[in-house]
Amino acid sequence: MMRVEDLVKFYKDVKALNGLNLEVKPGQIYGFLGPNGAGKSTTILSTLGLIFPQQGRIQLLDLEIFRDGKFDEDKLVQAKKRIGYMPEHATLWDFLTPVQTLDIIADAFKIPKNEKEKRIKELLDLVGLSEAKNRKVGKFSKGMRQRLLLAQALINDPDLLILDEPMSGLDPKGIAEFKDIIREQRKAGKTVFFSSHILAHVEEICDTVGVIVRGRLIREGSLEEIKREFLEKAGYTIILETSKPVDWSTVPWRASPLGENKYRIVAKKDIREELHDYVAKQGAKILTLQIKEPTLEEIFLKIVE
Ligand SMILES: Nc1ncnc2c1ncn2[C@@H]1O[C@H](COP(=O)(O)OP(=O)(O)OP(=O)(O)O)[C@@H](O)[C@H]1O
Q1: 53 CA to middle of ligand 1, Å?
Q2: Which residues of 165-184 are buried (b: 16+ CB within 10 A; e: fewer)?
Q3: Is the CB of residue 42 below 6 angstroms from any atom belonging to ligand 1?
Q4: What is the Å distance from ligand 1's center to 39 Cα?
Q5: Mean pLDDT value of segment 212-224
Q6: What is the 26 CA–ligand 1 centroid distance (Å)?
Q7: Where is the ABC transporter domain positioned along the sequence (predicted)?
Q8: CB under 8 Å to 32, separation ≥6 — which residues?
Q9: What residue's CA is closest to ligand 1, atom 2?
Q10: Rounded to an integer, what distance in angstroms lies between the CA atom of residue 214 and that of residue 230?
Q11: 180 vs 295 pLDDT, higher one
Q12: Which of 106, 131, 133, 279 has its CA 20 to 30 A from that of 64?
């Protein structure tokens, strides 16, 4: 659906994309993760022909829209008919209602008059704005504005949705609702590519995650794979107090004493059950056990370090 190869983008002497490669396959929900300034927006703007990279190739749907420093304008126009885009910093017309807003966008996409009303109603239902459909957008909360922007992006019933930081500024309820809408898109057979600088945003919905740091993709895989890889490096830490001393010399985990009958154990996986058995075999009891699992944000910080 989207393939980016060896993409390079300089803003004067700032190298924002440094040979970026990524591939989004049909039906995927792809989370494009990276810290602030990593190059996420630059990637998205490049794929839409809104800024000019200097090198590389970009394929959208089955069309090669960029190669050898040039966009193929015809292919770009063809591709964009089948794409929905939600920008990071979008403005809405505060003096219009959602219905009026979508009506203008539908006209821009030349949606026939007889289909327009039905399409707008469906979209407002989908994003949960039906009750607010005749209220002025100027009074909307951040979450409502994001939903309207998403409805705009969906107006042409796109095959590929490209969303730049769609969940930024939303509260946890707003994020959960937004994720539900994205799940609906997957069910409808759409492909979704969205950026975020927060790992929790991609949790539960993305089948693939790509991590960009300083203009290069440093990881691509499922969130589970990325988490597992991190845990294998950093491990789980368990703090344990036992009723009597325990000999750790034969275990495959790293164990170090923290005080009398108190130990820190570091293992590659969650070993609580094994620990109970091991300690019991030595005739001791576990008095306290604390497990410190890394949070998603700790994992992310470690990956991008
Ligand atoms: N118009 C511009 N002119 C000069 N430098 C720019 C411009 N836009 C982006 N940059 C720089 O390019 C790099 C990548 O920026 P980009 O906005 O693509 O990152 P991002 O991952 O989207 O970050 P954020 O999450 O903060 O939006 C940064 O160093 C940024 O300062």
Answers
A1: 13
A2: bbbbebeeebbebbbebbee
A3: yes
A4: 6
A5: 91
A6: 28
A7: 2-239
A8: 22, 40, 43, 44, 193, 194, 195, 196, 209, 210, 212
A9: 11
A10: 20
A11: 180
A12: 106
**Is residue 84 lining ligand 1, measured as CB closer than 6 Å?**
no
The minimum-distance atom of ligand 1 relative to the CA of 197 is: 25
Say which amino acid occupies 226. Answer: I
CB 177 within 8 A of CB 184: no
pLDDT classification of 80: cutoffs 50, 70, 90: very high
Q: Domains of the chain by range and CATH?
A: 2-221 (3.40.50.300), 230-304 (3.30.70.1560)
Crossing angle between the packed helical segments 142-153 and 98-108, to the nearest 10 degrees: 30
With bands split at pLDDT 50, 70 and 90, how would you rate the model's confidence at 224?
A: confident
Query: Ligand 1: distance of its center to the CA of 106 in Å?
Result: 31
Asked if 196 and 165 touch (Cβ cutoff 8 Å), the reply is: yes
Determine which residue's CA is closest to atom 30 belonging to ligand 1. 37
Q: Is 196 in the pocket of ligand 1 (CB under 6 A)?
A: no
Query: 237, exposed or middle or buried, with CB in 10 Å at 0-12, 13-18, 19+?
Result: middle
Ligand 1 pocket check for 93: Cβ under 6 Å: no
pLDDT in tens, 252-297: 898 999 999 999 998 878 888 899 999 999 999 999 999 877 776 7
Report the chain's mean pLDDT, rounded to a whole number: 91
